[in-house]
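Appendix B: complex inputs.
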Amino acid sequence: MIRHINKTLTFFTPDFSEHSETVFFDTGISAGFPSPAEDFKEERLSLDNILVKNKLATFYARVSGQSMIDAGLDDNDLLVIDRSLEPAHNRIAVCFLDGEFTVKRLRVEKDGVWLQPENPNYEPIQITEENDFVIWGIVTNVIKKV
Amino acid sequence: MYALVDCNNFYASCERVFNPSLRNKPIAILSNNDGCVIARSDEAKTLGLPMGAPAFKHKKFFEDHNIQVFSSNYPLYGDMSSRVMSILMQFTPDMEVYSIDEAFLQFKGFDNYNFKDYGTQIRKRILKWTGIPTCVGIAPTKALSKVANKIARKFPDETRGVYVIDSDKKRIKALKWLKIEDVWGIGRALQKRLKQKHINTAYQFTELSDEWVRKNFSITEWRLKKDLEGIPTLQLDEIASKKAIATTRSFEYTFSDIDNIKERVSTFATSCAEKLRKQKSSCHVILITLSSDTHRKEQPQHRASRMIKLPFATDSSLVISTEAVKSVNTIFKKGIKYKRAGVIVMGLVPTFNHQLHLFQHENPKHKPLMDTIDKLNTKYGDYKLKLANQDLKRTWKMRQERLSPRYTTNINEILKVK
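Resulting structure:
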């Protein structure tokens, strides 16, 4: 909404830049029997709305490798990452570790923070002072091609 | 109260979000066609890399100082900018997007707010959600919020990126610190005249009498003075709203042949017209610029521009291109090696309610033709439909040798995580 402010009047101009995903029922203006569907208008399902809770903070990344296969993250899967969520124990996070992006489960233990792979062939990584480490975002969904 | 929120070294910050190993490293971003430096990280500024530095002249400098150089990745910067702006909109309904990386917010009816806290919240949310660091300046007027922002940027340790001017004491202290050349909206010519009068700080400027400022300068400077005094005079969207669209580029090679230049100008004009139609504007004025390679001082230099006033507002590629190409004839000089041309359209009005001319108007066939061209070009991409005075064989490509991936707008270029 754009506001044009004058001394006495405030004008509003609608902003049409964002589409709303409402279903349009073209039932006409006939004087006959009204469409029974009219009262049951609902928004069509949109995967965007279901998978993306905060679109301003959502980014996508692609999995490369096998380290998280037991959590259902296979090579080439698409990750939905929400940067606005707080990192916490057991959440799956995209992290930047020593020059590389990696996706692992966060484990907060008494002895510090660990990155836990979900594949028995991979070793957990303990984060120490020496690491260049950033938690980049929290993985909320994984999308895979079948 | 007003706030100015400004992204720190925005382009460099965007690159860092998707490549955190660039943190604390010097970064330079090049203009379209990799011509010259248009953005620098703080580290690159400290090394003495000047703004606008031509890339080819600084190759060795980049290497010697290990500066990370990028082509401008506008799809990425544009997307990150729109995220930042949308987040800002969550903090107030009254906002003016001032440029790709800064916006003014107005807080009406926020009387009981602690603005230092609110500013910190704004800064934190943008950093967390997008990874872009910002500075926030808050003050009773627009011009003062710009000053507060400068202080926040200059003293990160003391301010933590947020500075509020909320007392006269703070205002005077800030204005005494601010040099006249750093005051927003005071151009170079004005600076000179003020300095001759021994006005060196923003504070001294506000000490001048209203009458003198009005008599010697214009209403704009008088309003700026009031704003700096803490009396809100400038409203949102009043200074320098963008009222022009430009397509200017360096050529791959230098051209001394007029037909080559006409082809480029026609292409740029077509691109401006397309941008006009996209935002449903029409233009009244076209400005054409031609320039030789100003970095090759040994060659004969020529820079020229010509402004064309149209009798009616238009968004037609045909009209804009024809007029632009015609004016190339009038400014082109033989024997000059041209390196750069530009088409700028100004005097923009909304296409659907512009003033009609009594005797002249646009050929009504243009509109459906333009609609069709736009539709086909969107559908098939790569500008399949062109005007005949554009080079049909060539698809003009920007030189972008150091382009980072379009992480947020192209599914094939998103981050890879192991």
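The two ends of chain B are 47 Å apart (CA to CA).
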